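Dissemination and training. As part of the outreach component of the grant, students in the summer workshop were shown how a complex can be specified as a set of sequence lines and then modelled as a single object. The example used during the hands-on session is reproduced here so that future cohorts can follow it. Participants entered these lines:
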Amino acid sequence: MSWGLFENWILPGLWVTVQATVFSALLALVVSFVVGTLRTSRLWIVRFLSGAYFEIFRGASALVVIFWFAYAFPLLFGWQLVPLWAGVLALALTYGAYGSEIVRGSLAAVPEAQREAGIALSFTPMQRLRRIEIPQAWPEMVPPFNNLAIELLKGTSLISVIAVADLAFAGNVIRLSTNESAPVYTLLLVLYFLLAFSITRGMRVVERHAKRGVGKLPEKKSRSGQGDVAPAGGSTNGGGA
Amino acid sequence: MNSKWNWDAVWDFMPFFWDGLILTLQALAWGTVLAFSLGLVWAIALRGPRWIAWPVIGVTEFIRNTPLLIQLFFLFYVVPEWGPTLSALVAGSIGLGLHYSTYTMEVYRAGIDGVPVGQWEAARALSMSTPHTWKAVILPQAFRRTVPALGNYVIAMLKETPLISTIGLVEMLGAARAYGVQTFNFMEPITVVGVAFIVIAYPASLLIRVLERRLATY
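and obtained this result:
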């Protein structure tokens, strides 16, 4: 693999992967907070609709959703998204569904008395959420969000199949042009690993900051073990708590 | 221009869909077998001496933190350069199983850690050998707790099987793409496949929830 290929494909690909990760992570965060709080609503219809959203996007395969936004969506609605944004939207909706379960579980873990105190002080539901429940639930959300962010980073490699020139796409271009696959794919694996590693480092800082906000000490030994939260997610972690 | 939903295309696609479904389930079955068994091996190795445990931690962290897609490319394109050539189904199943073994490892680990230390000590007091302790005392107790979480990973793996279409396996999504390319009907086959995933995954996740409740009360 020559320097030219590296400079013209890998570096821009890395940048596209970072962009896709950041954009879809931000959008997924919004989706998870909106859907997650709606799922704790008192109105059954709101709970039902947000629950249906969660089940649909948790049940569908991310790659199929990406394909659907790239190929079926333009035919159905008559306008087409730029491939990068089709990918970002599909990823955000899928991973936002997983994220909503994290938000819902953490909100449910806030002691009931906190909510009652908020009602007693005649906070509006919105004020309660913003000033009482979310600040206390947030530190609990950070570690699972870290795992989700890494899943999302790995998920961004899927958008290469709808011709977004990200890292995975660059890898395929280089494999086809040089006919050597070992160096390229090894480099790609290492790059993705480094990206995932830096996300974990960054989230560690966020976690420490969040825990300080509610006067908790950060956990000493936290291996990035993800055991309980991952694509299937949901029913084992934070379910109701 | 909006194109209309065409039911004929749906019926026309069905024979290809069934073929794809069978390949999806095949890849899922082999992947599951590999993920369950290899994950257990990793988890037991973690309990071993340092020179075994540390490399295992390093390797599994690396596998877990890199995309399955690239790992599939690696198995399909790089491995044949110095090893056997793998078919798409074999490479896909190995990739899927290997990737998810690093997740099932954590499930087993949690299950094994959940067995009280007293059990180990009791086995030691009865002068049972280490392999015998694993087989007769620890694992039977650990497995019980792991069933629902393992089930979740089977569903997760199901949803990752379409990735294997990128190395040429004509499973459900592969069939939908092939059909779309030939007939210019993309909308119907892709939607059918998407719905199929939900139809399979949703009852499965309900089943796991029931199982979880059953196993929790003992």
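The mean pLDDT of chain A is 86. Students were then asked to discuss how this feature might be tested experimentally.
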